[in-house]
Amino acid sequence: MQLDIDKMLVKIKNSQWALADIDWDAPGRERVTENVEQYAKLKVFMADLMWIEHVGARAFAAMAKKAPNDTLAEIYRYFHAEEQRHANVEMALMKRWGMLEGDHDNPILPEPNINLRLVIDWLDTYSDEMPLEVLGSVIPSLEIALDGALCKFLLDTVQDPVCHAAFEKINDDESRHLGVGFHVLEMMGYGKTYQLAVRTAGTLLNPKLLIGIAAYLPLLNRMRDNLVKLGLKEERLYEAMNKYKKIGGRTEQGRRNPWFQIISRQSAMVVDRKSLYHVPVDALVRLTDYYPRRWLKATPTWVKGLTWKTAA
User: Fold this and answer.
1) What does the domain layout of the chain look like in residue ranges?
2) For 146-198, what is each residue's pLDDT tens digit?
3) Architecture of domain 5-305 in this structure
4) Cα separation of 11 and 15, whole Å?
5) What global pTM score does this model have?
6) Fewest Cβ atoms nearer than 10 Å: which of 39, 78, 204, 286?
């Protein structure tokens, strides 16, 4: 059954919220701050999660420019703002837990790891040129990993009730992102099979996309291994990726989307540490550790919207 995107847009508009809706001074912060063993690892996890949300925001901004109709374009603009708000929530939680450096009113933004930074550079340079079927098929896999693995892991790990209240709102947003994401993924499967295959092959040969893939694959490996070290069960990752495959492949159109087939297979290899896929990708991870920081572009202006302040 196809999603009614007009009704979805109304639902999205009626579901907006702000950081000020959360009681940031409620008791419970000590459940994090006094857990010495968890604290340092959680600080790194939250910084990465915050940047992943902001990467998603930039992807939705690019997708809005490629949307086939005005309604979907407006939905993507809302999703862009929502992902930025999620990043702000995660920064506000870091502020609550004393994880931000700098003074009280002007905390220093945590630096993204090198792989996140390379993906940010690529998005800022090339994402607006990518066809909708690429980002429209990748984003649901990232959203489902975020919602099905990372956020659930965080809530299982952290006992601060404010964190749970914040992520209840974030998860509601993510459920709508997933609904639209799988609708678009299926929509990209309409057309003759050979035409879809030829178009996909042409896109895969685009040097700009190849640069993006070279940045994206090591990021996934680094994040996967960091999460497992933090305590995330690998079964959670398997469940999330199986969910992407099950939902994305529930219709003929979804299964005929070549990007769905590529991403579902690649995702299965990411979560399987025994796969030979990891040999070259791990080498890329090690290589990026030596990437000269002077070659990175200036931090793009779109990250300046990050703030812990509750008016956002």
Assistant:
1) 5-305
2) 777 788 888 888 999 999 999 999 999 999 999 999 999 999 988 887 788 88
3) Orthogonal Bundle (1.10)
4) 6
5) 0.93
6) 286
